[in-house]
Amino acid sequence: MLMLLGRVLVFVGIGGGLLILGIDLWMLAQVEEQVYPDKETVAYSDVALVLGTSRTVNGVYENPYFTHRITAAAELFFAGKVKHILVSGDNSNLQYNEPLDMRNALIKRGVPDSCITMDFAGLRTLDSVVRSHKIFQQKRITIVSQEFHNYRALFIANYYGIDAIAYNAAPPRGATLKTTLREYLARPKAILDLYVLGTQPKYLGDKINIRV
């Protein structure tokens, strides 16, 4: 009996792994032509959507994911590839404010404050992408994040009929196994949210006009 149960668990594990791999490959195939690693080849959009992440690791060390996203967004702005930057992230408590941190970092890079809009309700990738369209009224955006993240963000944008491309921020020198595994699991979750659960952003609200 125990041997049979062990075999069943092995087959379930293999099946689950193949399913996750299949979803991963399908998602990448759907959006790979919308991803740009070189700013010189990026097509113009009025607005760049920078996806949020923590400014530091454990409140102490600089988070390279954050730093590289800010660098990439500033590169697009100064190359004339976008006119405005929408920074979207989590602001779930008074001690944690991703959009404000991103805004401050962009200003330090020389981006004018008038060219930055903050979205404080980008609690997850789906929220940030959908709110860029439903709240901030953007029909075309350039998403800025690391490559592994951009694929999922673009897939969500495509589902909602948003004309989107993505610019890859540089990856950290050594991406952690935890980050990689989390993304592999996040992609099937995105499929579930879109096609089964119909998940919507936690917060919507009044429309906000971005002047560009």
Question: Which properties best describe this structure?
Answer:
212 residues; alpha/beta; Rossmann fold; six-stranded parallel sheet; 8 strands; 47% helix
Question: What do these coordinates show?
Answer:
With 212 residues, this protein is α/β, with parallel strands linked by helices. Helix 1 packs across helix 5 and helix 4 (125-134) packs across helix 5 (147-159). The protein is built from six helices and eight strands. The chain has one domain (33-197): Rossmann fold, CATH 3.40.50. The protein has helices spanning 2-31, 64-78, 98-108, 125-134, 147-159, 177-197, and strands at residues 35-36, 47-51, 56-57, 61-62, 84-88, 116-119, 140-146, 163-169. The chain starts with a helix and ends in a 15-residue tail after the last helix. It has a six-stranded parallel beta sheet with strand order 1-8-7-2-5-6, sandwiched between helices. A two-stranded antiparallel ribbon has the order 3-4. Helix 5 links the parallel strand 7 (140-146) and strand 8.
The largest pleated sheet is described as: 6 strands, parallel
Mean pLDDT figure:
88
Strand content: 15-25%
Q: Structural class of the helix and strand makeup?
A: alpha/beta
Number of domains: 1
Strand order of the largest sheet: 1-8-7-2-5-6
Q: Tally of extended strands? A: 8
The helix count comes to: 6
The unreliable regions are: 8-13
Task: Work out the helicity level.
Answer: 40-55%
**What is the terminal separation in angstroms?**
67 Å
What is the CATH top level name? Alpha Beta
Q: Architecture, CATH level 2?
A: 3-Layer(aba) Sandwich
Output the CATH topology.
Answer: Rossmann fold
Write down the secondary-structure element order. Answer: HEEEEHEHEHEHEH
Shape: globular
> What gyration radius follows from the Cα positions, in whole Å?
18 Å
